Amino acid sequence: MSELLEVLRYREILWNLVRRNLKVRYKNSVLGFAWSLLNPLMQIGVWYFVFNILFGRDEPNFMAFLVTGFLPWLFFSQTIMDSTAAVTQEMPLIKKAYFPRTILPVSVLLSNLIHLGFAFIVLLALFALWGVDLNIHYLWVIPSTILVALFAYGICAMLAAWSVFYADVKFIVSNLLGLWFFLTPVLYPLKLVLNKTFESPDNWVEFFLQSHLPLLKKLYVIDPLTIAVEGYRSALLHGGENFIRVTAAANATPADQAAALALQTSLRAQYPTLPYIIGAAVIAVATAVIGQIIFRRKADAFAEQG
Amino acid sequence: MSAIEVRDVWKKYRRPHVKTTSVKEAALAILRGQQGYDEFWALQGVSFEVQQGEAIGLIGPNGSGKSTMLGMLARVLKPTRGTMSVRGRVCPLLELGTGFHPELSGRENVFLNSSLLGLTRRETHQRYDSIVDFAELGEFMDSPVKTYSTGMVIRLGFSVAVHMDPDVLLIDEVLGVGDEHFQHKSFGRLLEFKEEGRTMFVVSHNLQSVGILCERAIWLDRGRMVKDEGSDEVITKYKAAVEAWERSLAEAKTRDAPAS
Question: Mean per-residue pLDDT for A37-54?
Answer without folding.
Answer: 82
